Amino acid sequence: MHILISGGSGFLGRAFSDEIMARYRERKKALQVTWLTRDSNQAHPDDIAMMTYDELTKTDKRFDVIINLAGAGIADSRWSDSRKEQLMASRIRPTEALLAFIARSRSKPKLLISGSAIGWYGTQGDKPLTESSGFETDFAHKLCDDWEQFALKATEHGVPVAIVRTGVVIHPDGGMLAKLLTPFKMGVGGQLGDGKQIMSWISRADWVGAVIFIIEQHLADYNNSQTTNDNSLKTTNDTPAMVYNLTAPTPVTNHAFTKTVGTWLHRPTFFTLPEFLLKLIFGEMSTLLVDGQKVLPQALLAAGYEFRHPTLMQALEVK
């Protein structure tokens, strides 16, 4: 099997690459992973192949699965108009490049997995949200929805699509948690706003495990993949498209998250950042911090995926 990954060197792509290659080595099965990059000199593991976007326009290589993860971090800086344009372009342009490759390929991939986020649902408080739920319109929804709609164009070329709407990914080595560790270790960690907002999270190991599960389940059922279920997406053709919420089955309030991290680090969590201050500091982006979403992984659970880290403490204690 040959897998092409945009964003392969990132927090999720690298962990996915390591895990799936380890699994295939253990099974003594052939696997090639290629990272799609704009920098031909980018450092990478010896067992990972590299391909630039320019090379993608010319290659006749066949990829069984394409994973589309490229995109600037939505919480990395304040949402100015120029930043919003950057966030959109960093997702749409790589997706367009992959679609152009798919369109001209004589041997089509068997599956495109394309990234998205639970921001697609918009701000809906503590209302339980599954793959069949609707949305509230805001910038996060538009960003995710535009990205998803571009990816779904792959079905026009007969390529099935799986959209993965990811929650807050937890691992001590990176992501949001790494940014929080310093203040928590200094004893100045605390809840955000009133702490009642729901945080839908997933351990990085379960994110990786879920994506591998989706790939293997789809490839095993490839000839019978025309079925419709609760996580099917509407397209203009008969090629299947699915959506999966990549979140743990146990979302927590920000207050519970704060207390759990404090317990894990053996540090106090007395401080609170009031909502008005968060809005003053982060502007529109503060919605990511003060407005909760209770997003549940109904499709994964129904398909039989078993979470390695169903509780937040289990995710924090990963070595």
TrEMBL record:
* InterPro entries for this protein: Cbl_PTB (IPR024159), DUF1731 (IPR013549), Epimerase_deHydtase (IPR001509), NAD(P)-bd_dom_sf (IPR036291), SDR39U1 (IPR010099)
The similarity comment for this entry is: Belongs to the NAD(P)-dependent epimerase/dehydratase family. SDR39U1 subfamily.
Organism annotation = Psychrobacter halodurans
Identify this protein by name. Answer: TIGR01777 family oxidoreductase
Q: Which GO terms describe its molecular function?
A: phosphotyrosine residue binding
Q: Which PANTHER family match?
A: EPIMERASE FAMILY PROTEIN SDR39U1 (PTHR11092:SF0), SUGAR NUCLEOTIDE EPIMERASE RELATED (PTHR11092)
Q: Name one Pfam family in it.
A: DUF1731
Ranges for domain Cbl-PTB come to 1-135
